[in-house]
Amino acid sequence: MDLRATAEAPSSPQLKDRQDIPDHFKWNLAHIFADWREWQAAYDELETKIAGYAALQGTLNQGALHVLATMKLQDEIGQLTYKVWYFASLRYDEDQRDNQINAKRQQVQILFAKLNQASAWFNPELLRIPLPTIQRWLNENDELAVYRFALEDLYRLQEHVLDDKGERLLSLSSRFSSSPNDSYSALSTADVCYPTVTLPSGGEVTLTYGQYRAILATHRNQADRAMAFTEYHELYASNINTYAALYHGVLQRDWFHSQARDYRTTLDAVLHGNNIPPAVVENLIETTKAGTVPLRRYHRLRKRVLGLDTYHVYDTTIPLVDFDRKYAYENVLEWLPASVERLGRDYQAQMQEGLAGGWIDVYENQGKRSGAYSAPVYGVHPYMLLNYNDTLDAVFTLAHEMGHSMHTLLSNAHQPFVYSAYTIFVAEVASTLSEALFLEYMLARATDEREKIVLLQHAIDGIVSTFYTQVMFADFELQAHRLVESDRPVTADALADIYFSLVKAYHGDAVDYDDLSRVTWARIPHFFSTPYYVYQYATCFASSAQLMKQLTTGSAAERSTAIERYLSLLKAGGSDHPMTLLQHAGVDLSKPEPVRAVVDQLDDLVTQLETAIDHLKPRSM
Ligand SMILES: [Zn+2]
Q1: In Å, what is the CA distance from 118 to each residue of 49, 174, 568?
Q2: Measured in angstroms, how far is the CA atom of residue 580 from the centroid of ligand 1?
Q3: How many angstroms is it from 32 CA to the middle of ligand 1?
């Protein structure tokens, strides 16, 4: 398909009623259940099985066959759960105004709560059996041996579980553990009074977060962006001591739980679940900080291209060129499978099947849920919700979700049910690699310098926001938690000093600094809601960068080994700890190489961007 055909392709339909969208642009949920009657029958069956599970209490210590029967019933319940939940939930997302479907969805949630109660006996009862006994049973029974990793991991996690009295005390504290984050939401969202400002270029605007982002990304007048930045950050500056006190609450809570469970640090506590050594995070932070040269090169280039005398944090997202090509969905259906040719015929064919086979709900309609996701419906196939609007962002979103879906497909096909789900720690590897392959394909076929520039900026901005920024955030969280771990005071100034010195360490003299950047930490909801979470985006990104390097460089033999290893990672699902799975795929996150692969990737993209911009020079930007 040539570029002209793309440019002339019809644009996407306007917001329609669902029944006006042709069926081949909708997912086909009949692959799960033919109708609500079939769904109800499965729901009833699930309810019966849950009651059956509760009845198994007290049987585990009678031997291997009893443990096996319990594990098998767990699998049956789990498999049914996927279908019963997703049929209702996906139908609901088609049109969230439908109260009847919402009621069915809530009906499933109530059943899940019952399931939790009915299965609460399992862990304590299992863990009362000595590990050597379980291991003997695993060795003696081949069918039970399938569950070895799952069962042994429960014993590993047990190390930091307290006695009944201690666990009860901790569970009593959970009621107020969420209080700092609840207060943060109230202060930053519910009670906030967004300022209405008149921009230097004219026009009045109420500065919600969405408006603020939109001004930074679309207003060519720097004074508009400067005003939006100042006014929006004043919101946080004016309450900064309250924000600091709330964050202090988060830090003290994390430290309390870590000490109560006998972890050395808050970082150790949070990494134990996935069995990640703390050195991984420390290495991530150090190697990234040492690899900021291409980041600074990018910002200096932006300053030059945008023709700015001073360059600020609010100048970092405006597009370098104006370009509004539309990407018709029909074209992407051909490009996407072509972009994964490296991964082999089978992979390509399976993706084509997905694109044609009722997996995807493409366009927006009245009442449809916003955003995009991939839903792993075990026993059927993955489904994808999109709100495709012909923009470049929408194209890459499809590539991203398709990466998740292919991961699900391969993992479900090659793993027993118990290991079919993968953790977040590996999930974003498949999606970001899918995007990287798609970028490579699109860059190769782009003949228009402007399109190249837009593609390169899209890729670079992706690296900056999903990698550099997330590592910087992880560094901030680690240093902030270390304040309480070493009995140092946590004040608004102390937090501002940590944050501002990080911003400077990353950007050096490539950026002109504003004092209001000292409060930016207060506007990051992740710090309050999910501490130590964001680093996982960065480790996934680094893993995928190194895999991309291995897939695309070296001898043909080396490349084909790398492809096999990558596909094995996707097929491995959740059958081992994520670090081990990644090691088998050729990525060792305890070493600097994966991070260096990101740094090299960014360096290469910035060089390509410089070249594309030089080619464009004769014409006006
Ligand atoms: Zn994702």
Answers
A1: 10, 21, 36
A2: 21
A3: 23
Residue-wise pLDDT for 421-440, tens only, equals: 999 889 999 999 999 999 99
The residue with tokens 């030059």 is 304
CA of residue 88 to ligand 1 center, whole Å: 22
User: DSSP code of 194?
Assistant: P
Nearest to 453 by CA among 610, 326, 277, 578: 610
Say how far residue 248 (Cα) sits from the centre of its chain.
Answer: 26
How far apart are the CA of 404 and the centre of ligand 1, in A? 7
Cα separation, 419 vs 146, whole angstroms: 10
Instruction: Tell how far the Cα of 456 is from the centroid of ligand 1, in angstroms.
Output: 20
The CA 460 to ligand 1 mean position distance, Å, reads 17
Torsion, CA 44, CA 373, CA 187, CA 226, rounded to 10: -170
Residue 401 alpha carbon to ligand 1 centre in Å: 6
- Distance from residue 535's CA to the centre of ligand 1 (Å): 14
Do β-strands 204-206 and 360-361 pair in parallel, antiparallel, or remain unpaired?
unpaired
DSSP readout, 367-416?
TPPPS-EEEEETTTEEEEE----SSHHHHHHHHHHHHHHHHHHHHHHHS-
Distance 73 CA to ligand 1 centre (A): 31
User: Do β-strands 196-198 and 204-206 pair in parallel, antiparallel, or remain unpaired?
Assistant: antiparallel
Q: What is the pTM of this model?
A: 0.91
Q: What is the pLDDT of residues 522-574, one digit of tens each?
A: 999 999 999 998 888 999 999 999 999 999 999 999 999 999 999 999 999 99
Handedness of CA 592, 593, 599, 603 (dihedral sign): positive
**pLDDT above 90 for 168:** no
Interval between CA 334 and ligand 1 midpoint (Å): 22
Q: Which amino acid belongs to residue 349?
A: A
427: CA distance to ligand 1 center in Å?
7
| Cα–ligand 1 centroid distance for 397 (angstroms) | 9
Residue 448 CA to ligand 1 center (angstroms) comes to 29
Cα-to-centroid distance, 418 and ligand 1 (Å): 22
Phi and psi dihedrals of 157, rounded to 5?
-65, -25
Contact assessment for residue 457 and residue 320, using Cβ atoms and an 8 Å cutoff: yes
Sign of CA dihedral 200, 203, 207, 211: negative
